[in-house]
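debug: dumping io for the single-chain case to check the tokenizer round-trip. Nothing else runs in this session.
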Amino acid sequence: MRSSVFSRCHHCLRLSPSALCAECAALVPRPQYACQRCAIPLAENMPLCGACQNQPPVFDHARTAALYAPPASQWISALKFHHQLSVARLMAEALRAPLMSLVPEVSDAALLAVPLHQRRLRQRGFNQSYEIVRQLAALSGIRCLHHGLIRHRPTARQTTLSKAQRVKNVRGAFSVNRQNWPPQVIIVDDVITTGNTINECARILKKAGVQRVDALAFARA
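debug: decoded output
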């Protein structure tokens, strides 16, 4: 097991060789079953949820490490709104195994953070998704494509919108910022809420010639 730069557990502050000690890692809420396509929690063991059976997303597969519930939701808030950048390492460690389950060949894959609009980036001072990607790249050996996508239009928060509004909100909000793409791109975000943002990113990437686009997020709502 690769040692972490952390000397104490992020949650309980006890000495730990990783970002979370074994006891606190056991507190992370995880679904018993999840859709293999979009990672939404399921009540029973089924390969696909009803929505993915009826209309599969553009991205090929999604994987997450936790449910969006305490303490995972609290860690996301700490990273995003309280500038606790050390939490990104915690999330990356939790996502390493789900990431590697998506990657048949490391040399053919690349990580890509969901971009923020410049206005939001100036307000926050950093992109929380890129902080996770940066740590994941170091842990996995998979390269990071920084600025591969650009969010050139600000969008409203998806949770405040109806299903139809969510799709329209992100439609055309992203564009590619490079010509040469690897065969597989894994889009990384802190949380998947509706899936529409990552789906739009995947649509743009496949239009640009990427063969396989997968999604990875620390938590799933």
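debug: round-trip ok. The CA atoms of residues 63 and 157 lie 22 Å apart.
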